[in-house]
From TrEMBL:
Its EC number is 1.5.3.24. This is Sarcosine oxidase subunit beta. It catalyses: sarcosine + (6S)-5,6,7,8-tetrahydrofolate + O2 = (6R)-5,10-methylene-5,6,7,8-tetrahydrofolate + glycine + H2O2; sarcosine + O2 + H2O = formaldehyde + glycine + H2O2. It comes from the Bacteria. InterPro entries: FAD-dep_OxRdtase, FAD/NAD-bd_sf, Rhodanese-like_dom, SoxB. GO terms for biological process: tetrahydrofolate metabolic process. Its main location: cytoplasm.
Length: 414
């Protein structure tokens, strides 16, 4: 595939842009692959990419029931950070954040990674203690964060009202190399690179069953017919429970809708990402100028992939004390995605009771930031049967009581 470069753009400008290749092929499925990945979200595509790049496994199909990146990967608010509390989490999220730093160069696709800095506001005494503890843990883990004063918060983000009557800002956990990236571009960049390695991305095809023989996977049933495979990766976020059932096992996971909204575009007012966990809202400004606002998850299990007005009202009401300017903004659109939540708010990257079937799920409200690191670890697990980054996230932890409690770090939607 022809590389993207400034020279290529100039050349195509002179040729009316008629010489570009298709970014990825849309092939008919083959009868057999070494590896089938279900789900062409960021995590599924990244798994396929690192299987090819790091382990030389390229006879791979990624099967997607809708369009690639059309699940949570194309619906999130794009926050990237690695300031988690527990060691295994910090390791995988920091691996991921560091891969984001050079992802555009690695994929030859501009994913618009913008390490503009992420702050998590402390608005109660309890939060101050919690975030100071995380900052100390991060120092030991080699993750660059610091606890900053309320004056520094105001300096970094002048539109914040730090003297709110109910929830004044008391400080913040600050990660200067956290930030955002363009979510669609992450999916598109991985898809293009996978296609370039000869992998097949098969869209508009649902995996409806998993075939087994003697406790081992032999293939999948799809709406385009059966496909045989040596190994199967289930990477379907909010549909993990459904797919696990089709493969013959159960997962300790719940699916709920999570929502977000954007305002009309305005001139630049904010060049950091701010999360306010006490009031349950967070905000950043997109390159187009829209204020990107995330809210909470529904309080009950469901598969509704759409927004609802009461969430918009609740989230904006929560944020308006800290960001008075949003009271004068018109909201443009809102939407929802189906996220997969585990009890300890940590992901699952694991072998399963069916030999040859691997599962990657449970990223809940915060898996966009983890896409490169998760793909790296899942590919290693599938290729070698073991991955140091994934070890702590196995399914066994629920049986053995080795929970990785991230309910503070991942408690708010992000
Ligand atoms: C509103 C919202 C805001 C968020 N904000 C952030 C944020 O700021 N930062 C952050 O880090 N994370 C955020 N997240 C979470 C993040 O989006 C997800 O954790 C992440 O995108 C999950 O990626 P994935 O590849 O696992 O899943 P998805 O992108 O959902 O991909 C799974 C794919 O599997 C497909 N699929 C399902 N079943 C089948 C089947 N049977 N056959 C074939 N295909 C199937 C689906 O169609 C889908 O495309 C947010 C999520 C939402 C909804």
């Amino acid at each position: 595939m022809r590389r993207y470069s400034a020279f290529a753009i100039a050349r195509e400008a002179l040729r009316h842009h008629e010489g570009w290749d298709r970014a990825w092929r849309s092939p008919a499925p083959k009868a057999r692959y070494d590896v089938v990945i279900v789900g062409a979200g960021g995590h599924g595509l990244a798994t396929a990419y690192y299987l090819g790049k790091n382990h030389g496994i390229r006879n791979v199909a990624v099967i997607e029931k809708g369009w690639l990146g059309g699940g949570n990967t194309g619906r999130n608010t794009t926050i990237i950070r690695s300031n988690y509390l527990q060691d295994p989490s910090a390791a995988i999220y920091e691996k991921s954040r560091s891969l984001y730093e050079t992802l555009s160069q690695d994929l030859n696709y501009n994913v618009m990674f913008s390490p503009r800095g992420v702050m998590m506001l402390a608005q109660t005494e309890h939060e101050i203690r919690g975030y100071q503890r995380t900052a100390h843990a991060n120092a030991l883990q080699g993750v660059a964060t610091e606890f900053i004063s309320r004056q520094k918060v105001k300096e970094l983000c002048p539109i914040i009202n730090i003297d709110g009557p109910r929830y004044p800002v008391l400080g913040a956990l600050w990660q200067p190399r956290g930030g955002t990236a363009r979510h669609d571009a992450v999916a598109w960049g991985y898809a293009r690179a996978c296609s370039d390695m000869g992998m097949d991305i098969i869209q508009q095809t649902e995996v409806t069953g998993v075939t087994r023989e003697g406790g081992r996977v032999t293939g999948v049933e799809t709406t385009k017919g059966p496909i045989a495979c040596g190994k199967l990766g289930i990477v379907v976020a909010g549909h993990s429970g459904v797919m696990a059932e089709r493969a013959g096992f159960r997962l300790p996971i719940e699916s709920v809708a999570l929502q977000a909204l954007v305002s009309e575009p305005i001139k630049p007012v904010m060049d950091v990402v701010v999360m306010a966990n006490t009031v349950h809202g967070y905000m950043s400004q997109s390159d187009k100028g829209e204020m990107v606002i995330g809210g909470g998850a529904d309080g009950y299990n469901n598969y509704t992939q759409r927004g609802s007005f009461h969430h918009v009202e609740e989230t904006v009401r929560a944020l308006v004390e800290t960001f008075p300017i949003i009271s004068r903004l018109k909201m443009l659109r809102w939407w929802g995605g189906i996220v997969d939540m585990t009890g300890d708010r940590s992901p699952i990257i694991s072998k399963t009771p069916v030999e040859g079937v691997f599962v990657n799920c449970g990223w809940g409200t915060g898996g966009f930031k983890a896409i490169p690191g998760s793909g790296w670890a899942m590919a290693e697990l599938m290729a070698k049967g073991h991955s140091p980054l994934a070890e702590a996230f196995s399914l066994d932890r629920f049986r053995e009581g080795r929970f990785i409690d991230e309910s503070v770090a991942a408690g708010v939607a992000h």
